[in-house]
Design brief:
Blueprint: H1 2-16, E1 18-19, H2 21-28, H3 32-44, E2 49-52, E3 58-61, H4 74-90, H5 96-106, H6 124-140, E4 142-149, E5 155-168, E6 171-178, E7 183-188, E8 192-201, E9 218-225, H7 230-236, E10 242-244, E11 250-257, H8 260-267, E12 274-277, H9 279-295
Antiparallel strand pairs: 1-3, 2-3, 4-5, 4-8, 5-6, 6-7, 9-11, 9-12, 10-11
Helix pairs in contact: 2-3, 4-5
């Protein structure tokens, strides 16, 4: 839409200060002639945009220009306020002043439709401090020293460069680069036992895009559960992964990493879970169950 393109031109000029028509045309994927028509339209609507010629010439806005609230639709204002309200709740209320100012400017009120609480039940204080430190380190691009427990129970102190928080499959993760291995890693937030922000800054890093391929550590597993455990099955698996039989039993087929978490999860069902495949997973569960029985023998 033309209005959206006009806003993108203004945003680009606010960001860059001065740009040539070919540069704007390339960024917006339109012709140079279209850019000049848009500049004329913006100028005609009262936006102080002007063109200078010469070697250092280009298109720019007056230094005194302020983006008018009229450029945002009612839905866009509401979306912006709602996003800021959610961010404020997520980060501990640090954006309340900005939220109040924008609400007054837009003559609108943010709807609190989402509430995010990073802490676990009964562990609010320490979890909140941990998330605040992680967020501070990521925003300020500072290294973190963390004590981390792997999926196999190994506890280790690591230095990492935090990039962003990610929510996936009902859990929060930290995307980061590990200083020791020089590799990008995904750290489960609940397994970060302690963290400290270090006085070491790092250059911007781009976390690699996730591919659709299945990691080597993943296997297709098929499990069968009695109907009494349906609530737990639907908590963990999607409807497309579950097939319900006539007698109410649930057969689950999913691709998952076969690690300590999966073994512990399946053991938590006791004798109620039946591993159809892979065969080696049945052996793993049997050996772990034997260890439990030997350790807890009366």
């Amino acid at each position: 839409m033309k209005e959206n393109r006009h806003f993108r031109i203004i945003y680009a000029l606010l960001r860059q200060g001065r740009m040539t028509a070919p540069e704007l045309a390339e960024e917006l994927d339109v012709s140079v002639r279209t850019i000049y028509r848009d500049i004329d339209a913006l100028s005609g609507s009262g936006i102080p945009v002007y063109v200078t010629t010469g070697r250092n010439g280009g298109i720019q806005l007056l230094d005194s220009f302020i983006l008018r609230k009229a450029l945002l639709s009612g839905d866009e204002k509401t979306t912006l306020l709602t996003a800021l309200e959610s961010l404020s709740r997520m980060t501990g209320g640090g954006h309340q002043d900005l939220l109040m100012k924008l609400s007054a400017l837009f003559n609108a009120r943010a709807e609190s439709l989402m509430e995010i609480d990073f802490s676990r039940w009964g562990n609010e204080a320490s979890d909140t401090v941990k998330y605040q430190r992680i967020r501070k380190a990521a925003f300020e691009r500072k290294a973190l020293s963390i004590v981390y427990v792997s999926s196999w129970g190994e506890r280790k102190t690591r230095k990492i460069y935090p990039l962003k928080l990610s929510y996936k499959a009902k859990d929060w993760y930290l995307k980061a680069r590990c200083a020791e291995t020089e590799a990008f890693r995904l750290f489960k937030i609940n397994r970060i036992l302690a963290c400290e922000v270090l006085n070491e800054e790092f250059a911007p890093l781009e976390y690699p895009e996730e591919t659709a391929s299945v990691p080597e550590s993943c296997e297709e597993i098929t499990l069968r559960f009695p109907k009494e455990f349906a609530w737990r099955v639907y908590d963990e698996f999607t409807e497309g992964q579950i097939r319900e039989t006539r007698d109410g039993e649930l057969t689950v087929t999913a691709v998952m990493p076969v690690d300590g978490w999966l073994v512990g999860y399946l053991l938590s069902f006791g004798a109620a879970v039946d591993v159809i495949r892979p065969d080696f997973l049945r052996g793993v569960l049997a050996r772990e169950a034997a260890k439990i029985m030997a350790k807890n023998k009366p």
